[in-house]
Specification:
Shape: globular
Bound molecules: 2'-deoxycytidine-5'-monophosphate
Largest sheet: 5 strands, parallel
Radius of gyration: 17 Å
Order of helices and strands: EHEHHEEEHHEHEHHEH
Number of strands: 8
Number of helices: 9
């Protein structure tokens, strides 16, 4: 099999990872893998069962009953399949964001999803975004980006994004949720969010999307022969 190219984009919630990665993947003809969506699917499943995402034993007991599938439609949009059911839209709520952050701290969940993520990167050129892509999932990625922005800017963007989708949300609550998720995602024992030594940090607080895409394209072009 020909060697594939992997671009890892890690960073905190709302830094713009998915928007940027989706655009870049379309331009480069790579697969975009949103790994947060995979953790969200686990959280959604656990929640449907009425199990707390903090309950390590409860999560471990039921997680074997879950089959997570990733499919791509003709437009290249990633769909999450939970035991045969498309839950792509159901997993995009503030409640599931919090629960995904909690459920992702358990070893049984991370282990279950590791090979699945690596297999996609083995088979395809990918831009994969998440929290531990450069550090754990694809430590030998060709390019590692750490995308970040101030919590306030991220909360403002997330508020606008959810409002545009017709969800009723409150900026202060979203800011609180983001700060709590930042804390959880950076302080967990296994695969916490952190910048790798070989990552390039891009702070998007003062940039618009076009500027971020151009910046990342420059970084990618320096490291990968496109
Ligand atoms: O990127 P996101 O907001 O959709 O991710 C939801 C949660 O999933 C996030 O708060 C932490 C967890 N996550 C993770 O632990 N590792 C990843 N690679 C991606 C997400």
């Amino acid at each position: 099999m020909a060697k594939t190219v992997s671009i890892a984009i890690d960073g905190p919630a709302g830094a713009g990872k998915s928007t940027i990665a989706r655009r870049l993947a379309a331009e480069l003809g790579y697969y975009y893998v949103d790994t947060g969506a995979i953790y969200r699917t686990v959280a959604y499943f656990i929640d449907l069962l009425g199990v707390s995402p903090k309950d390590a034993d409860g999560v471990a007991r039921y997680v074997d009953e879950l089959t997570v599938g990733i499919e791509y439609d003709e437009a290249g949009v990633q769909h999450m399949i939970m035991n045969g059911m498309d839950v792509t839209d159901d997993i995009r709520t503030p409640d599931i964001s919090q629960k995904a952050s909690l459920v992702s701290a358990h070893a049984c969940v991370r282990e279950m999803l590791l090979d699945m993520q690596r297999d996609v990167a083995k088979a395809h050129n990918v831009i994969m975004d998440g929290r531990d892509i450069g550090s754990v999932v694809l430590p030998r990625a060709n390019v590692k980006i750490f995308l970040t922005a101030s919590a306030e800017v991220r909360a403002k963007r997330r508020t606008e994004e959810l409002t545009a989708k017709g969800q009723k949300v409150n900026y202060n609550q979203i800011l609180k949720d983001i700060q709590q998720r930042d804390y959880q995602d950076t302080h967990r024992e296994i695969a916490p969010l952190k910048m790798c030594r070989d990552s390039v940090k891009v702070d998007t607080s003062e940039m618009d999307i076009d500027e971020v895409v151009a910046t990342i394209k420059r970084i990618v072009a320096e490291k990968v022969k496109l």
